[in-house]
Amino acid sequence: MADNKIPSAAGARPVTTASRLTTLIPGVLLCIGVAGISASLEGVERQVFAHPYVEALVMAILLGMAVRSFWKPSERWQAGIAFSAKQLLEVAVMLLGASISFAAIAASGVTLLAAIAAVVVVALCVSFGLSRMLGLSTRLSILIACGNSICGNSAIAAVAPIIGANNDEIASSISFTAILGVMMVLGLPLLIPLLQLTATQYGILAGLTVYAVPQVLAATVPAGLVSTQIGTLVKLMRVLMLGPVVVGLSLIASRRQGGTKKTSVGFFRLVPWFILGFLALATLRSLEIVPSTVVGPVTKITSFLTVVSMAALGLGVDVRVLANVGGRVTAAVTLSLMLLLGISIALVHWFK
């Protein structure tokens, strides 16, 4: 029988699955604690005002950021925080598929797909041009354009090896993603009353503008299940645009290199496992293999995991990092996001 122990550095103790899980416990418990406080505060709001003005999800982000401002978690906490911010939220996205039927967006059909593709293409072109106008390199401009227009760090990670981006360019392009992602999650729901958006309109807006699939879930949960379903599906369609973009950049890079160097990107880098899981569960739900009685409990589990993950996200954001980001990169990323938001707001008024 094969040994499941993975040898570490010489003289170090072998790493087992159990020891890995043990390293996650402190950070995960910390995130659950912040999430529990947030949920309790929301409960107090419900008792006093009959309606929570600040959802537990938002409060978890703010509390996490507040803790991070005066205390930097040591290495002991980091593994669990990172796991909660990424893996737990990806599980939540996957489970959301069990509550979605593809019939929910059948009415929008080809029109919505064409609109999403058009927004991505326009945002890519204008973001790239804007970055170049600000004096950024071609490779850095491509990373910023793909990150803002498609899916944040995932797009940057997929595109970087194809265009031969160096570590400094990658770090510069993703440095603002965490903070702007949190700002979008917190600020986007404010547009619902301001622009008088319907649940479907807000879902489309969130799906078109928020960086990552899990962040779309966080931004739409306070607006209701319809917005969450529509937003997640729109975002998944937007993520699928990464495939053609990567293929196009690969062809361009191959021609420039004279065909001497081949750069490939694995399927699971373009389509993460949790998106495949989401689509699989959505398919089972659409075929009524997943019964409607399951939707309620799954939704509650999804909401709980999302709050825990938002606490972890807040704990991982240091607002002081803004001082270390170059002014031109900051301007390019921020202006690109504002441009995408403006285009998306104009588009959602077509989907009433």
UniProtKB/TrEMBL annotation:
<comment type="similarity">
    <text>Belongs to the UPF0324 family.</text>
</comment>
<keyword id="KW-1133">Transmembrane helix</keyword>
<dbReference type="Pfam" id="PF03601">
    <property type="entry name" value="Cons_hypoth698"/>
</dbReference>
<feature type="transmembrane region" description="Helical">
    <location>
        <begin position="170"/>
        <end position="192"/>
    </location>
</feature>
<keyword id="KW-1003">Cell membrane</keyword>
<dbReference type="InterPro" id="IPR018383">
    <property type="entry name" value="UPF0324_pro"/>
</dbReference>
<feature type="transmembrane region" description="Helical">
    <location>
        <begin position="112"/>
        <end position="130"/>
    </location>
</feature>
<feature type="transmembrane region" description="Helical">
    <location>
        <begin position="47"/>
        <end position="67"/>
    </location>
</feature>
<protein>
    <submittedName>
        <fullName>UPF0324 membrane protein</fullName>
    </submittedName>
</protein>
<keyword id="KW-0812">Transmembrane</keyword>
<feature type="transmembrane region" description="Helical">
    <location>
        <begin position="266"/>
        <end position="284"/>
    </location>
</feature>
<feature type="transmembrane region" description="Helical">
    <location>
        <begin position="142"/>
        <end position="164"/>
    </location>
</feature>
<feature type="transmembrane region" description="Helical">
    <location>
        <begin position="204"/>
        <end position="224"/>
    </location>
</feature>
<feature type="transmembrane region" description="Helical">
    <location>
        <begin position="329"/>
        <end position="351"/>
    </location>
</feature>
<feature type="transmembrane region" description="Helical">
    <location>
        <begin position="304"/>
        <end position="322"/>
    </location>
</feature>
<feature type="transmembrane region" description="Helical">
    <location>
        <begin position="236"/>
        <end position="254"/>
    </location>
</feature>
<feature type="transmembrane region" description="Helical">
    <location>
        <begin position="21"/>
        <end position="41"/>
    </location>
</feature>
<feature type="transmembrane region" description="Helical">
    <location>
        <begin position="88"/>
        <end position="106"/>
    </location>
</feature>
<keyword id="KW-0472">Membrane</keyword>
